[in-house]
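question for whoever is on the cluster today: can someone run the full assembly for these? two chains, 223 residues total. i dont have access anymore since they changed the login thing
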Amino acid sequence: DADVTQTPRNRITKTGKRIMLECSQTKGHDRMYWYRQDPGLGLRLIYYSFDVKDINKGEISDGYSVSRQAQAKFSLSLESAIPNQTALYFCATKSGSSGELFFGEGSRLTVL
Amino acid sequence: QQQVKQSPQSLIVQKGGISIINCAYENTAFDYFPWYQQFPGKGPALLIAIRPDVSEKKEGRFTISFNKSAKQFSLHIMDSQPGDSATYFCAASITGNQFYFGTGTSLTVIP
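^ ran it for u. tokens below:
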């Protein structure tokens, strides 16, 4: 089983719908991140969390919200999806003592 | 505003050649500079990283060159192989908290 698991892996939805992307990890890391990947724009940070009670906005948080339900679970929500939120979304984890980010395999979201 | 600028956007190299990808940054508070490798359908994975107290780090065929005064760093892939074909991202962070990524370089190694 993957250390960082994202669900769903693919999702097609319509404008205005609420969408939740979920991330769970078995690495025991305290820090979790949500990134968005777009061609030519690289990876951009949406939100990050250093523990269950700590949530921080990243570079592009508008239109998104997150919930850290437990140390191992971090979900990303789009309250009212719009077409320019069509992208590949990655969850990542990191321990506080290491510099390495561990990424999930991504969730491809298409908003029609 | 892009915190880390990466070039080129794409790169085609013959097998056995040297692949070079460059990155530049402005924020002198950055203290950790990793490179990530991403294969299609997969998440990025750490390839190699450097801290600004050294000018070069080598791991196998992969080398990071770091120029603190120019605020630039680069990835060199020696003896490039078709299996190295992937997208490469440079990144920078402050105390290992927020990571800022470059826009990525798609490398194709031709057999």
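summary bc i know u wont read the tokens: The mean pLDDT of chain A is 94. The radius of gyration of chain A is 13 Å.
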